[in-house]
Amino acid sequence: MPLRYSTPGAYVETFDADPQRIRLRRTDVAGFVGVAERGPINVAVKIQTWRQFQSTFGGFLRDAYLAYAVNGFFQNGGRTCWVVRAGDATRSTYASVTLDIAGVGRVAIRASSPGAWGNGVVVEAVWQRDTISALRIRNDAGDTRTVPVSELKRFIPKPGRTEPDEPDPRDYQTNLLGVDEGALQELNDPPLAAPLVTVRDARVTPLDAAHSSVRLTGGADVAAAIRLEHLLGSGDPSAPMGLEVLERVEGVAFVAIPDLMIGQDSSTKGTGGPFFQTTGELAEVQRKVMASCLRMKDRMALLDLPLTMTPAKAVEQTTLLSHDSIAALYYPWLIVGDELQLHGPVRAVPPSGHVAGMIARVDRRRGVHKPPANEALEGVHDTGFAIDVPTHGLLNDAGVNAIRAIPGRGILVLGARTLDPDITWRYVNVRRLFLMIEQTLDQQMQSLVFEPNNPRLWRDIARLVSDFLDRLWQVGMLDGDTAADAYTVRCDDTTNPPWETEQGRVTCVIGVQPPYPAEFVIVRIGVARDGIQIRTDEVRNG
Fold first, then answer.
1. How far is Cα 174 from Cα 167, in angstroms, rounded to an integer?
2. What residues contact residue 140 under an 8 Å CB cut-off, 6+ apart?
3. Are 187 and 174 in contact (CB under 8 A)?
4. What separation, in Å, do the N-terminal and C-terminal C-alpha atoms of the chain show?
5. Is the same domain home to 396 and 252?
6. Which residues share a beta bridge with 215?
7. Other CB atoms closer than 10 Å to residue 144's CB: what's the count?
8. For residue 79, what is the DSSP state?
């Protein structure tokens, strides 16, 4: 607050300046694609709690793993993810019913999203004395919504008219779903069903004192027709599906598609799939996921392997994949509690969802530079395959991140490697650190576009980038005893010669030293004449 001056004179004030700084890009946001019970199809929805996922997409399914993955994400510390329900929206049908409500009029009620789940939605009359004041809409899971009659009347044509007052009744449902201005949706407490204008020649069901509740009908379950293109996309930019929809979401840091494993377990034989029959076909599918991440240049792929794949086959699988640091492979499956009780109290699920939550937890607690390994997975009872020390060594050398049950410590992720054998890009934290730096600089320096291309601009760029990298070094995200060891920044006439500036280009060359993990801690014990000598060394593999 400025001081109150009464005596004339010169005064000096001090204040905390807030110089222009580059803000770190968030790195703990996951993206999931898979099969869900309900919810919008081929629309990216921002989910921030497990309860919100259940409200939007339903619960666990016998024939899919998406709900298990998202639940594992939140159990392990994840805070925000984007979810895309895969399916063919053009072939899906909504459950609905056309009601003749006593004292109100005729109106159609349609489930908020397609699928057989809508056939379990019940509409009940809420009475106030001898009139219906509202409709209570509930489903089999116990979720309820109440729609007042005052809202319904907007969709009932006035006498002498065949159209409602609203020019487009779909606007009402759109508002209920909370659609953003763009193509993406962020749902907030979505409805189970919404009132629509009545349909001519539709079969009308009375809702009155004699018929106080009605069930919706006609919803078609799209899960049984899931194909690979629904998960990964068909290449048609006018009708993106699955992973293609997720590409339109900014800020996703890692991607998991656990339902690529549909059909690899006896409990998921009836949901479409299997999407691959051989290890070669599996590699082709996973390369498509990796290609999506390479196009986006801001996210990594977390890949699963089939439940029945042996460690030797897992090692062999890495030879079929492109050696790129944009992906990390995790093995084996996890044994988790199962509310569906399909084969007892537990069920095997792909690990990518739980691993995604663990990575998000590490990012928030330590930072993206911390290798996401030697960390426990929550909500996991066991692993689908017991990995011993020699097997772990084989998997680690091949770039497969092993998950092991360690007595007294729990279920641990004991690997932080990408699929790139090159020491430069071998580790997940190094690849993700560079992705964060690249995307942060790209986003935060957009304001400099079209500025006069002269030495002043070069100095401003060098100052901003140096300040950004220095803050990374100060908090331990870059390695080096001094700032000069940790990073270099050069933006001057040597990087911007006249023939470059004449083309409207500005070049800033930076170098950084990432913190490579110490994978092996070796204790050397030597026996000397005067006693035992112990020395501990941290060894970086490479």
1. 13
2. 120
3. no
4. 57
5. yes
6. 122
7. 12
8. -
Our count of domains for the chain comes to: 3
Q: How far, in Å, are 450, 523, 524, 525, 533 from residue 530 at the CA level?
A: 72, 19, 17, 13, 9
Task: Enumerate residue ranges in the chain where pLDDT < 70.
Answer: 1-6, 9-22, 153-203, 221-224, 266-272, 518-542
Long-range contacts of 145-148, Cβ-Cβ distance < 8 Å, separation of 24 or more: 145/191, 145/192, 145/193, 147/194, 147/195
Assess whether 165 and 260 both reside in one domain. no
Does some domain include residue 220? Answer: no
Whether residues 254 and 347 share a domain: the answer is yes
Instruction: Note whether 379 and 239 are same-domain residues.
Output: yes
Identify the pLDDT of residue 398. Answer: 95
What is the sign, positive or negative, of the torsion defined by CA atoms of 72, 75, 78, 84?
A: positive
pLDDT for the residue numbered 179 = 26
* Residues paired with residue 100 on neighbouring β-strands, in sequence order: 106, 206
pLDDT, tens digit (0-9, with 9 covering 90-100), for 428-455: 999 999 999 988 888 888 888 888 989 9
Q: Are residues 239 and 363 in the same domain?
A: yes
Question: Residue 434: inside a domain, yes or no?
Answer: no
DSSP strands (E only) in 408-486 = 410-413
362, part of any domain: yes
- Alpha-carbon distance of 122 to 217, in angstroms, equals 10
- 130, 133, 138, 144: CA torsion to nearest 10: -130
Encode pLDDT of 44-75 as tens digits: 999 999 999 998 898 999 989 999 999 999 99
Q: Which residues on adjacent β-strands are paired with residue 46?
A: 82
pLDDT at residue number 270: 53
Residues 136, 66 within the same domain: no
Claim to verify: residue 97 and residue 66 sit in the same structural domain: no
What pLDDT is recorded for position 180? 28
Boundary (domain end) residue, out of 165, 195, 215? 215
Residue-level pLDDT at 158: 55
Q: What is the spatial distance between Cα 56 and Cα 47, in angstroms, rounded to a whole number?
A: 9
- Residue 31 pLDDT: 97
Q: How many CB atoms lie within 10 A of CB 503?
A: 8
CATH assignment of the domain containing 341: 3.40.50.11780
Residue 220: what pLDDT? 77
415 contact partners, CB below 8 Å, separation of at least 6: 330, 373, 395, 396, 400, 401, 402
Q: What is the residue-wise DSSP string for 475-513?
A: TTSS--SSHHHHEEEE-STTTS-HHHHTTT----EEEE-
φ, ψ dihedrals at 209, nearest 5°: -60, -30
| Within a domain: 438 | no
For the entire predicted model, the pTM comes to 0.84
Q: Which of these three, 215, 239, 256, is where a domain ends?
A: 215
SS3 252: coil
Amino acid at 195: P
Q: What is the DSSP-derived secondary structure letter of residue 159?
A: T
Pair 465, 362 in one domain: no
Domain region containing 70: 30-87+225-429
